[in-house]
Amino acid sequence: MRACVPLIVAVLCGLAWVEDPKEPEPFPELEEEEEEAPTSNLYLAPTSCQGRCREAFDKHQPCHCNARCQEFGNCCEDFANLCGNHEGFSHSSDAITKEELQSTSEKIYRADTNKARKEDIVLNSQNCISPSETRDKVDHCPEPLFTYVNEKLFSKPTYAAFINLLNNYQRATGHGEHFNGQQLAEQDTFLREIMKTAVMKELYSFLHHQNRYSSEQEFVDDLKNMWFGLYSRGNEEGDSSGFEHVFSGEVKKGKVTGFHNWIRFYLQEKEGLVDYYSYNYDGPWDSYPDVLAMQFNWDGYYKEVGAAFIGSSPEFEFALYSLCFIARPGKMCALSLGGHPLAIQTYTWDKTTYGNGKKYIATAYVVCST
């Protein structure tokens, strides 16, 4: 499988751009994902970077702790000590290296025994377009993307638990999310089921060895806050979460944001709610999971570039995104899958925090290089 245009293409889950050796030009959605968010009023030391590393720029702050403050000479005095040359939430003495991330991602890749086999999914990708055409909103594909999916996959415990979560959200931002007892129980069920898998056991073993978590329960509790904790993406308090954005999808300012999951796409396409338009990137893998960057209409709203793993298990995606958020929050996270390089970019959200200054995962994107 290959990119369909003779260019170096970086595909992000939800965004894409053509890499120019001089100056890459991002699509508008990248700017939207990185839009400034008001700094939480939980920070008690505005002249310190304590709890503020990698926060969004806020012109009202007297000094700054974002990734570019050194370029502008406006970092807080303790930036270098608290934020500089550190990876993830650890100190440099126990930082997770690039080599460790690549080795661990390969182990997770091999451990994904719940992934689809080649015969489980038949895709009809049809027409490939150039990156310059992704904004045109033209339907180049008269037929659905998925010709066939072996739905026996969905009876597996992690798939079933994952699917139960998808309809627990209001897709329009600006409307607060409220969960009943059953929906909260479904979150716990999903976490419990994925923790039984070799994929998540591999991830926990690595992070435990890295002194990130002292027990599996601490790890699970953190995952629940990280992915299901609510934050404010619009004007309404608690209208979004990492899980909702990345896996279920949202609509903000008349555009689809998030929605980076093949299972969700297939189920919505089957119901007639998703109209597949085209694709502009097909990953290098010759088995599942693969990556496809596509354009589609979701019940009246357009997705300019929505890249997603295809054929992966829910725990596989959950593990890779979590690994990168823990090890490289707000940074590019270089991985390796089946010998092919892949990176994931996560973003944190500053409107609220959890646990010792760590921030909710706001979004995670897959970046594939050819």
The number of helical segments is 11
Shape: globular
Mean pLDDT: 80
Helical residue percent band: 25-40%
Distance between the termini: 10 Å
Overall domain count:
2
Q: Tell me about the biggest sheet? A: 3 strands, antiparallel
Q: Would you list the SSEs in sequence order as H and E?
A: EEHHHHEEHHHHHEEHEEEHEEE
Low-confidence stretches: 5-44, 85-93, 353-357
User: Strand order, biggest sheet?
Assistant: 7-8-9
Number of strands: 12
Beta content comes to 15-25%
Radius of gyration: 20 Å
GO biological process, one term: immune response
Keywords: Disulfide bond, Endonuclease, Hydrolase, Lyase, Manganese, Metal-binding, Nuclease, Repeat, RNA-binding, Secreted, Signal
EC number: 4.6.1.-
Domain EndoU: 97-370
Note the main attributes of this structure.
lyase activity, RNA endonuclease activity, manganese, 29% helix, three-stranded antiparallel beta sheet, 2 domains, 370 residues, scavenger receptor activity, 11 helices, Factor Xa Inhibitor
Question: What would you say about this model in short?
Answer:
This protein is an alpha+beta fold and 370 residues long. The chain is built from eleven helices and twelve strands. It folds into two domains: 42 residues, Irregular (Factor Xa Inhibitor); 270 residues, no CATH class.
